[in-house]
Specification:
single chain; mainly alpha; two-stranded antiparallel ribbon; globular; Amino acid/polyamine transporter
């Protein structure tokens, strides 16, 4: 990941040439048309915390890893898993996000490599996965507060609280991405600070022997892997906001590098404190248990601080995820993959229709349990990541001369090898999914396979209006189906 900070300028000078009979237009040479919106661009510090909240938001939600596998495997998981999954995903996002610095992100990558049909499938699966993921945060918000407010345990009051929270946070997204970015910075500092205090308070009570407890005969591998996977993925989500970032070709790789460090430390150190400072009771390690540990170590005041930090952290994750999901829909509309009305912005420069669609999905899914939501979004996310890996390798092979302001310092063979471990992990996660989750997820995938031809039919019959933004860069290709990049 150190390379993220020092190879951008070296690669920026590589111009697009001709390869495999395909003529490319250099992205850097396409004169942009004036944008219809004047929203401020996101700078590096807010971008770091937006990535932090896209992926993590703090150690809230990692408790199930201890319940599933014990302290040793939980700690090792949050050290080893980033090397297998997070680092490759972040590197690919840095390369592809700077190659295509526009809203739509991974949808544009897959469309350039595999054609618009598969680009749409990528957009459908990743958007649906993101909306399912976002349905978690009102659930987690209320779970952390229910010990202090028993009325939030269930019933009408909990449902009303979840709905009200969704409305407030949706409005924040409507007001602008710059506001969301700086709110993410403030929430991030407030969310991590109590764990620093808890660590200092816990020092006299740490017993290192507790870290090495493991029982290989009592491991819930499905819960363990799903917890790790959910807490360490979504690095690519920030790519759907690339068009809103200030100088993304330099800012995006740096932000991904610093966010990776922040995320790993934000998981590992609280787990180190929690498992080392209190006697192990695995059954208690579930959502909200860090607040109980805080009470044992520091008293009620620290417990309330952790609960408040958890609540605010879930707010940060919600607004970051909704920003990504809604700008993805806007980017797809700008590429002509969705009806034109998805591309319209509010007076604050935000994708109003995309926000409303994403919020509606969250409300419809908020009744599911935590474990069901995690398993379902992981299943769909896995399919999307397979398409991303294929697109990444295919563009390396078909467009070797394309301008890549940041390029992973490896050749095509190295790129393929880098994708093998996370692909194996994807297969394991899919294989461990329950029948119910697999069936529902496959139905959702099937809907996307049918939806894209239906939209094309609606366009031909002039039932909906589609258009492609004139100010987006594009390639001219001779192959209709292979490497037809960013079709006009």
């Amino acid at each position: 990941m150190q390379k993220l900070r020092n190879t951008g300028n070296r690669q920026a000078s590589v111009a697009m040439g001709q390869s495999d009979g395909v003529e490319y237009v250099n992205i850097n040479e396409v004169p942009p048309s004036p944008r219809l919106h004047t929203s401020k661009k996101v700078s590096i510090l807010p971008l770091i915390f937006l990535i932090f909240y896209e992926v993590s938001g703090g150690p809230f939600g990692v408790e199930d890893s201890v319940k599933a596998a014990g302290p040793l495997l939980a700690l090792l998981g949050f050290l080893v898993f980033p090397l297998i999954w997070s680092v490759p995903e972040a590197l690919i996002t840095a390369e592809m996000g700077t190659m295509f610095p526009e809203n739509g992100g991974y949808v544009v990558w897959v469309s350039s490599a595999l054609g618009d049909y598969w680009g749409f499938q990528q957009g459908w699966m990743k958007w649906l996965s993101g909306v399912i993921d976002n349905a978690l945060y009102p659930v987690m918000f209320l779970d952390y507060l229910r010990s202090g407010i028993p009325a939030l345990d269930g019933g009408l009051f909990r449902a009303a609280a979840a709905l009200g929270l969704t409305v407030v946070l949706t409005y924040m997204n409507y007001r602008g991405l710059t506001i969301v970015g700086w709110v993410a910075v403030l929430l991030g500092v407030f969310s991590l600070l109590p764990f620093l205090v808890m660590g200092l308070v816990a020092i006299p009570q740490l017993e290192p022997s507790r870290w090495f407890v493991v029982n290989l005969h009592n491991i819930d591998w499905n819960l363990y892997l799903n917890t790790l996977f959910w807490n360490l993925n979504y690095w690519d989500s920030i790519s759907t906001l690339a068009g809103e970032v200030d100088n993304p070709k330099k800012t995006l790789p740096k932000a991904l590098f610093y966010a990776l460090i922040l995320v790993v430390l934000g998981y590992f150190l609280p787990l180190l404190v929690g498992t080392g400072a209190v006697p192990l009771e695995r059954d208690l390690w579930t959502d909200g248990y860090f607040s109980d540990i805080a009470k044992m170590l520091g008293g009620v005041w620290l417990r309330w601080w952790i609960q408040g930090a958890a609540a605010l952290s879930n707010m940060g994750m919600f607004v970051a995820e909704m920003s990504s999901d809604s700008f993805q829909l806007l980017g797809m509309a700008e590429r002509g993959m969705l009806p034109e009305f998805f591309a319209k912005r509010s007076r604050y420069g935000t994708p109003l229709i995309g926000i409303l669609f994403s919020a509606s999905g969250v409300i419809l899914l908020s009744w599911l349990s935590f474990q069901e939501i995690v398993a379902a979004e992981n299943f769909l996310y896995c399919f999307g990541m397979i398409l991303e890996f294929i697109a990444f390798v295919r563009l390396r092979m078909k467009c070797p001369a394309a301008s890549r302001p940041y390029k992973i310092p490896t050749g095509t063979v190295g790129a393929i090898i880098m994708c093998i471990p996370p692909t194996i992990l994807i297969c394991v996660v899919l294989a461990l999914s329950s029948f119910k989750v697999a069936a529902l997820s496959l139905v959702a995938v099937a809907v996307g396979l049918v939806l894209q031809p239906c939209l094309i039919y609606a366009e031909k019959k002039r039932l909906m209006k589609f258009s492609t933004s004139a100010d987006l860069p594009h390639f001219h290709g001779s192959e209709q189906e292979g490497i037809e990049s960013l079709i006009e």
